What does this fold into?
Amino acid sequence: MLIYYDANGAITGVMRLAPHVTPPPGDHIEVPDETDLSDPFRWRVVAGALAPETAATPAMRRMALDRVAAKREETRLTTLTDMKFQSLYYMVKLMEAQAFVAASASGTPDPADYPMLVSEVGPIETGGTAPTLAEVAQVVLNLNALWRQMGGPVEAACFAAAAAIAAAATRAEIDAATAGLDTAISQITGALG
It folds into this structure.
């Protein structure tokens, strides 16, 4: 396997060639095919050999920030559905649930005023959210409360990790920031059980 690198030793490309093929021009070294380069930003070429990258490079920061964004989204999807415009439906259902509870306190609400909630009434076994309109409203309110309880701490953990990544001087500091985020998210979601 050929590893191409720039004047600073940063890896710019990895290539496998058949034995009879002449390598393209450029600074490169040859390493065994089984060398793990799944994360080429962990390495650099120093004195003609692969060496662990210890500095926090812009590419490492980008990859780490991508991991922060992915972790944020993965955590959100534990309580939210991933569909285009789904957040709009959640907002409308929340408004309907709040209005239903308020109307219930002063009388009997008209189901026609709550079409999003009515659409979810039915046995859970057949795809419904709950058997009655009042129970659907309560489920919507409970899920919103859960997300609000989890959302703030998740955002804070992600912003803290992003700040630590931006300030990192070494690869180890970037790795510590992403590991810290994983720990924080596990603690947040574990506490909500």
Q: What stands out?
A: The chain has two domains: 2-52, 58-192. The beta strands are 2-5, 11-15, 28-30, 43-46, 49-52. The longest helix spans residues 133-167.
